[in-house]
Each structure stands twice: as structure tokens, then as C-alpha cells.
Amino acid sequence: MTVPAGATANRVDHAGAASEFIAAPQHVEFHDRRLWEIRRKRDQECLAIPEWEELRRLASAIKEHTLTHLSDYLEQFERNAAANGMVVHWARDAAEHNQIVHQLLASRGMTTLVKSKSMLTDECELRPFLARRGIEVVETDLGERIQQLDGEPPSHIVMPAVHKLRGDVAQVFGRTIGTDPQRTDVPYLAESQRRHTRPYYLRDKVAGMTGANFAVAETGSFVVCTNEGNADLSANVPRLHIASIGIEKLIPRVEHLGVFIRMLSRSALGSPITQITSHFRAPRAGAELHVVLVDNGRSERLGMEDFWTSLKCIRCGACMNTCPVYRRSGGLSYGATYSGPIGVIVDPTFNLHKYSALPYASTMNGSCSMVCPVKIDIHQQIFRWRQVIAERRQLPLAKKEAMRVAGRILGSPVLYRAAVQAAATGIERLPRFMVYNPFNAWGKQRELPATPPLTFREWYLRNRGGKP
Amino acid sequence: MSSREFVLANVRRNQPAAVELPVLPVFERAPTDLPAAFGDALERMGGQLAVPPAEVSLDDFIRGRFPQASVICSAAPEVRGTFSVHDVREPRELQGVDVGVVRAAFGVAETGSVALGEREFGVNALGFLSQHLVVLLDPAAIVPDLHAAYWQPWFREARYAALLTGPSATADIEGVLVRGAQGIRSLTVVLAAEPV
User: Fold this and answer.
1) pTM of the model
2) What pLDDT does residue B125 have?
3) Distance (Å) of CA A147 to CA A28, A29, A162, A326, A332
4) What single string gives the DSSP state of each residue in A81-96?
5) Do the Cβ atoms of B19 and A65 come within 8 Å?
6) β-pair partners for A91
7) Which of A111, A184, A464, B150 is deepest in the core (most CB within 10 A)?
8) Rounded CA gap, A91 and B116, in Å?
9) Mean pLDDT of residues grouped by 10 in chain B (196 residues)?
10) What is the mean pLDDT of chain A?
């Protein structure tokens, strides 16, 4: 992606990047409709469960309990996993994670890695790290594979290629795996990927990799929720299985999975459960199973009073599907591994300056918090990030000037009334360039509504005048 | 300081004030016909339910449903197939299997899932390298929901424990549902009591 105009050094310009996405109206229209359809399917599933709100309360409390006792649960997980025959590694950051994985592969002479989708390995940028060291990495999830072959990061945490249309996929596959670029029927494209991918699982010197949705402390096991069968092929065919797990994925007991598994796919896709929900407790006979527990900023986030509950996230993507800004700007415009509302509150913990524009990619409608299965107060945290960014003077110039002027006017009743009056009488006579200019982002892609005949204050004085 | 100690020390230092672990309630369910509910949920997820006639053997029944199949690998003692999974030395040998046959530990009515692990599969890859999967399920071994499923001791004993719900599927391109993504193309659950 080219750097959009207006991006300062190293700062992601969400609005600028979104304008590239918006420039393709068919894509925006489809993206918006597709994600909203999933939101509606999610609603149907949740409404069919009378105890849904109780499940949300339980899920939130279980996660908060675990996070506030995380060191104990991590040690318990490690102890039990090791007793079952797994090997547990600890990585304080992305670089260490990548080195551990590479060392495991290189010391066994592995030359291919078949992997299922894992946001954590995207976060760690594992793929380019291994590629530079001569290991062929094959993403096996269809959406993630499309993105890998197109040289793009995933644009959605559940549906990596949701921003692409079938014609785009046909072009990518035509260029890379030898399909007919003119053939755009979806079953053909999916079948082509199946046939292209299968031989990789069967190679010599191949290792498999998965992420994990949950790690259970009392059994030392971890759970992988997928639909395509690729994760279980990656884990069950090669002799080496490596699982990368963020330390926030812990839950205390097996029985707690009843709560989370009931909610995950219903929230994510509006389906009762993923087609395959796999629990790995011990290596299979004759095979090795390694787990890498990754911190990469999570233990620091745990200490952020206003933001630690973002670690409850189970990566369902419901907040993205419901977000009007995400649906109309596309995940790639966030310029980060995690996009949408959850990305907006997580990304600044990695790099406040780089991601300081993201908390403004929100209308503050609160829908994200309403659909979150673990009750993260996402929109409150977005608001809190705006305050932090303003306090630390990370606002871009145009926003800063607009906010400074707005702050003075909103802070003074006299100035405010004068401004409202002037706006009401003046707005229709203003030349377009005064409203639709680069300093007023709200003038882009929008027409202002007609001004009402009376201001609220005028209406109030006329109708309720003298009666406070 | 090792990375393990570094991470644990940082977590310990930053852990917010303790929040209590909630007690899971038991969600009351109206009594339902579990096999019927299981079948409905399974079909929603793209699976098929089959009840073989009493006079037909399971082997004949399976062959009848997959007349084109030449390689049928069975992990269930009551089905012969064309070979037994117990003769397989490594997972890759299963790449040519048309139909895999296995008996589930139990089923889940809420979702239409069947519980399959290394004891059931013999070789786990049978559930993923096969083109089609036939799962025998005892109608008496169906639990009402996922809460009940996770109370089963099975999850604590199995090395590998999978809940399979219908065939592998993807909707990664324009949301168009394709059944038979990378694993099995179809999943048929055959209600058949476990032989005593």
C-alpha cells in the first residue's frame, strides 16, 4: 500500500488510507453489506439463547479473574502441559518468539511450515522472518492464503480476505497458483486452493503450526477453533506441531470452555460452533508438541488501569462487523495487525505515536461494546485513548486546531450561542469550499443536513420560555 | 533473568486487584428428544443423519451410500471397510482414503457435534485426510449442550479431543459457503447403538 498523503512520519493515516478503499465503490458496498449480514446472523443466534446475557457476564468475570491471577494460571498451565509431554517455551517479545520457532525448525532440518491462521504470528511478523532463513511458510486458511499470495496482511481477524471480491481472488490465484484468472466461481477457487495446499501437508521435513483460542490451566491443554480442517491437518499430519499462544488466552478450567465455545462462533460468524473445535492436551504417539507462550507487550498492558480489560478479547471480530467505520473503511486502512474497534484500543499499546489516529476512527456509537461477548467497554476505552492522545499532544495538526477552537467555543455559552446563530444563518450561504475543505473531515463524502428553522435554544425560549 | 522469569515477574507486578471466579450455574433445559435435536443441529451445520434399516449390515449400508468409494478405512470394530486404521503406520498413508469410518465417544444435541479423539480415530488424520467421514453414534450417548459436554471426563483423558460439527467448510470468498474446504467433504452420522 502506498503511504497516503497526510501521513506524518511513521503515523498511520486511517482516513487517508480509507479513501483508497472508498475509491472502489463496489468493494465498499459489498464489504458493508457482508459484514452487516454477519452481524444480523449473530443477533439471531444470540436471541435464540435465553441465557446469552448471563453467558456474557460469566465470560467477562472468568476472564477478569484469570487476568488478575495470571501468573498463577500460567505456572499451572506450564506444569500440566509439561507433565503431559508438551514442551513449553516463553517469549518476552516477537523477536524471541520468532527465534524459538526458527530454532525448533532448523534443528530438525525442517524446510516447510504449514500453518493455520494465527493473529499472534501476524503480530510477530513470523512469516518474513522464516522466509529470510530459507523456510517455506504456507498459510493454509483460505482467506489467509489469499492474503499471503497477494502480499497483503489480513484485513479482518476472522475473515482475512473479506475486503476482496471473487474477481480479485481469481486474479491472485491466476497469478500465483495457476488457476484460470477468468474463472471466478467460488467453489472452483476454493477447490483449487484445496488441491494446491494438500501436497504441502504430505511433504517430508514439514512441520505444522497453529495458534490457540484458549489455553486451559488445569489440564495444560489448548483449544483451536476452525472451519476448514486446515489446522487439524497441520497439527495431525506432520511430526512436529508448534502452537503460538498469547499469555492472555488462559482460562482456569475445562468447564469454562462451555461458556466460551458457546459464544465464540455465534459472535464471530452467527454459527452455533465452528465446524472443528480441537483440544490438544498431549503430543500424539511418535510426534512432538511445542507451545510458545508469548508476552510481546501483554504483561505491560495488564498494568494499564484504563486498558487492561482489552486482554479479555477472544478475537471473535463481532466489534468489527458491527462498526460503521470499519465496514466502510476496510481493515487494511488501520495499518495494523488488529483493526476495527478492538484494534483501535489495542494498537496504541504497541506504539502510541504510530497509532494515534486510530481512536478517531469511531463514531462512538457504542455498538462494539454491546456485541462484545466478554463485555469489554470498547467505546469507553476509545474515548479514554482520545484523552490520552490529547494529553500527550499526539493529535494531528488539523484535528488539534479544530479541537482548540471547538474547545474555546463549547467552553463559553456566549461564544457558543453566537457560533450557532452564525452557523444557522450562514451555512447555506457559505461557499462550498468553506465547508468541504481538508480541515473539515466531516465534509468529505457527506452532504450536511439542511439547517432547521430554529435553534434548540430559540425553540426552548419560545415554547418553555421563563419556565426552567 | 530468563524470559520465563521476566514474563512472570512482569505479570505479577502488573496484575490488577483480584476478581473472584464465578460459579457456573446449571442452565435448566426443558426435556427434549435428544437424537432429534441433534439431527436438526447437525443438518444446519451441513452434516447428514442416517438411521440404517435393522436388516442391513453397517458395511453394506456405508457402501450403499458411497457407491463410488474404493478405499474405506475403518477405525470402528463393527465396520470392516477395505482396511483397518490399525494397519496404518503414519498419517500420510491415509491420503487416498475415500471414506473414513469411526465411532464417536458422544454427541452434543445443541450443536450437532460428535466427539472424536485419538482413541476413536486410531490415527487422528483419518478425520481430515479422508474425503468423507461416517461417524457411528449411539443415540444413548447424546448430551444436551456444550456445558454437559465439557463435564465429560473424556476431555481430561484424551490427548487430542475434537468436536466435529458437519464437514469442513469455508466462506472466505464473498461469504459463499463451500462445504468440503480442506478436510472432509461430507460428514454422515449413523445412529447405531454400541455393540455390547
Assistant:
1) 0.90
2) 98
3) 18, 20, 10, 18, 11
4) HHHTT-EEEEESSHHH
5) yes
6) A294
7) B150
8) 32
9) 97 98 93 95 98 94 97 97 96 97 98 98 98 98 98 97 98 96 98 91
10) 92
- Say whether B27 and A259 touch across the interface (CB within 8 A): no
CA-CA distance, A16 to B102, in Å (whole number)?
A: 54
All residues at 6 or more sequence positions from A151 whose CB lies less than 8 Å from its CB, including other chains = none
Per-residue pLDDT of B152-191, as tens digits, reads 999 999 999 999 999 999 999 999 999 999 999 999 999 9
Q: CB-CB: which of B24, B156, B176 is closest to A58?
A: B24
Strand B142-143 relative to strand B107-108, pairing:
parallel
- Give, rounded to a whole angstrom, the gap between the first and last alpha carbons of chain A: 57
Say how far apart CA B191 and CA B68 lie, in whole Å.
Answer: 23
By Cβ distance, the residue of B15, B149, B174 closest to A70 is B15
Strand partners, A276: A226, B164
C-alpha cell at B132: 468423507
Could you tell me the fold of the domain covering B33-191? Rossmann fold (3.40.50)
pLDDT value at A29 more than 90: yes
CATH code assigned to A49-296:
3.40.50.10420
The answer to whether the CB of A356 falls within 8 A of the CB of A348 is yes
**Domain ranges in chain B?**
33-191
Residue partners of B138: CB distance under 8 A and separation at least 6: B103, B191, B192, B193, B194
For B170, nearest residue in chain A (alpha carbons): A228
* Minimum CA–CA partner of A156 in chain B: B172
ipTM of the predicted assembly exceeds 0.95: yes
Spatial CA neighbour of B128 closest among B86, B88, B91, B87: B91
Q: What are the strands of the beta sheet with B160-164, ordered from one edge?
A: A250-251, A214-216, A221-226, A276-280, B160-164, B113-117, B107-108, B142-143
Distance from CA of B114 to the nearest CA of A (A): 10
Q: What is the pLDDT of residues A253-302, one digit of tens each?
A: 999 999 999 999 999 999 999 999 999 999 999 999 999 999 999 999 99
Q: Which of B121, B173, B178 to probe by mutation at the A interface, max A CB count within 10 Å?
A: B173
A 10 A CB-CB count for B57 gives 12
Q: Check residue A308 and give its pLDDT.
A: 98
Q: Which of residues 35-54 of A touch B (CB under 8 A)?
A: 37-38, 51, 54
Every domain of chain A and the residues it spans:
14-40+317-391, 49-296, 397-464
DSSP letter (8 states) at residue A250: E
Beta strands in A24-181 (DSSP E): 87-91, 112-115, 136-139
- On the question of pLDDT at A4 being above 90, the answer is no
Q: Do B173 and A169 touch (CB under 8 A)?
A: yes
C-alpha cell at A190: 476454493
For A192-240, how does the pLDDT look when each residue is reduced to its tens digit (9 = 90+)? 999 999 999 999 999 999 999 999 999 999 999 999 999 999 999 999 9
What is the arithmetic mean of pLDDT over A83-89? 98
